[in-house]
Amino acid sequence: MRDDNCIFCKIAAGEIPSNTIYEDDDVRVILDLAPAAKGHALVLPKEHYANLYEIDEDVAAKVMRVAKKMAIRMRDVLHCDGFNLLQNNEKVAGQTVFHFHMHLIPRYKEDKNDDILRYNHLELSEEEMAEIRDMLR
Ligand code: AMP
Ligand code: ZN
C-alpha cells in the first residue's frame, strides 16, 4: 500500500533523502526535521496507513518493537534522562502528516520542553467516570 501524494511514503521508500538511523524491511526511522529535542526521531512503516485506526496490527507491533530498540540506543548513546513516545491521530490531535508515525523523543534534564505532554486535567465526577468506564469496556 502506498499513497503517491504522501511525503512519508517517499521518505520511507528512500526516494526522498532523510537522516535515517534505522531501516529494515518494514520500517524506517528518521530524524525529525524540526526536533523537539536532540535525537527526536520518527518511526515510519514503509506501507501507507493514515493513522492508528488504519494501521495493520502486525505492523503496529513492529513499530513498537523498533521504538523500544531505539529508546535503548538513544539512552545508551545520547545519554538522555527520559523518553516520550508520541503518536498523533487526526488534525485535532496534532497530526500534520497523514502517514502513521511514532515520535521518539529523548528527554534531557536540562531541556526546555516541560510542556511537550502537559495537558489540562478535567475534573469528572465519580458518576461521569463510571459512565465512561462502562461505555468503553
Ligand atoms: P505529526 O504532527 O505527529 O503529524 O508529526 C509530523 C512530524 O513530521 C513533525 O514533527 C515534523 O517536524 C516532521 N516532518 C515533516 N516533514 C518531515 C520531513 N520531510 N522529514 C523529517 N521530518 C518531517
Ligand atoms: Zn504514506
General description of the model:
The chain has three helices and five strands; from the N terminus they run αβββαββα. With about 140 residues, it is α+β, with helices and mostly antiparallel strands. It has a five-stranded antiparallel sheet with strand order 1-2-3-5-4. A hairpin with a 3-residue loop joins strand 1 (about 20-25) and strand 2 (about 25-30). The chain is globular. Zinc ion binds near residues 6 and 99.
Question: What are the main properties of this structure?
Answer:
single chain, 137 residues, alpha+beta, 3 helices, 5 strands, 28% helix, 18% strand, binds adenosine monophosphate, binds zinc ion
- Major β-sheet profile: 5 strands, antiparallel
Instruction: Provide the helix percentage.
Output: 25-40%
Widest sheet: strand order? 1-2-3-5-4
Envelope shape? globular
Overall pLDDT metric: 95
Our Rg estimate from Cα atoms comes to: 17 Å
Number of DSSP-assigned strands: 5
Structural class: alpha+beta
Taken as a percent bin, the fraction of beta residues is 15-25%
Per DSSP, the total helix count is 3
Order of helices and strands: HEEEHEEH
Low-confidence parts lasting 5 or more residues at pLDDT below 50?
Answer: none
The rounded distance between the terminal residues' Cα atoms is 32 Å
Distinct bound molecules: adenosine monophosphate, zinc ion
